[in-house]
Amino acid sequence: MISNVLKWVDSKPYTRNLVPGDSIYWEVQRKIGGIEFRYWNPEKSKLSAFLVKGGKIFSFGPRSTILYLGAANGTTVSHISDICTDGRIFAVEVAKNPFRKLLTLAEKRPNIVPILEDANQPDIYSRLVGQVDIMYQDISQRNQTEIFIKNTFMLKPGGIGYLMVKARCIDVSASPARIFKDCKLELEGAGFKILEMVNLEPHEKDHAAIVIEKL
Ligand SMILES: C[S@@+](CC[C@H](N)C(=O)[O-])C[C@H]1O[C@@H](n2cnc3c(N)ncnc32)[C@H](O)[C@@H]1O
To answer: Is the CB of 76 inside a 6 Å radius of any atom of ligand 1?
Structure first.
C-alpha cells in the first residue's frame, strides 16, 4: 500500500527511506512509528509540489515501472525510488555532472537504472526501457512537449504520463496560462486524454503539471 511509503505530517509529504540513514539533498528526516521517513520538499521537487497543490492522480505504486526524463542528480528520482520499492525507474539525463550524482544514488538503490542520453533520441534507450506504466518528464527545453510525445511509444496503453511544463522555456513573451493551454491542445492533438492540470505556484513559478493517459 502506498500509505506505507508516503505519509503526510502537518500537511507535509514524507517518503519512507529505502536506504535508512542516507540523505540525498540534506532533506529533513524523521521517525514515524519507529521508521525513517524523508521530507519530500515541494520547493525541490515538482512532483511533491503537484501533490502539495492537491494533484489527485498519483499512479506510482510498489511495482511501477517508470521512464523518467530529465533526472538531474536524482532528487525526485530518490523519492520515487522510496515509493516504487520493487519497481524500476529508468532515469534519463543528458548532462554529465548531475549524472555522476545519479550514478552514486543508483549504487545504493537497485530500482534506479541511470541512462546518460539525450531524451530527443529515444530510439537509443528504448530497447533497454521496454514498456512502462508511467512516464515523467521535467526538462527545461523549448521543445519539451515534443520530447514528451516522442517518448510515449514506451508508455503502455492505459499508462499515465506526467509532464512538468516550464512556460518560460517555451516562450518568454507569452503568458504562462496561454502556454499551458497550447501544451494541452498539443497533447490532445497527439491522441492523449488530459486527466488533470495543476499550477505549481508558489513552489515553482510559471510551472504546471499536466497529467495524461495513453488510450
Ligand atoms: C529541472 S532539471 C530536473 C530536476 C529533476 N527532475 C528533479 O526534480 O530532481 C532538468 C534536467 O533536464 C536535463 N535535460 C535537459 N535537456 C535534456 C535532454 N534533451 N535529455 C535529457 N535530459 C535533459 C538537464 O540537464 C537537467 O538536469
So the answer is: yes
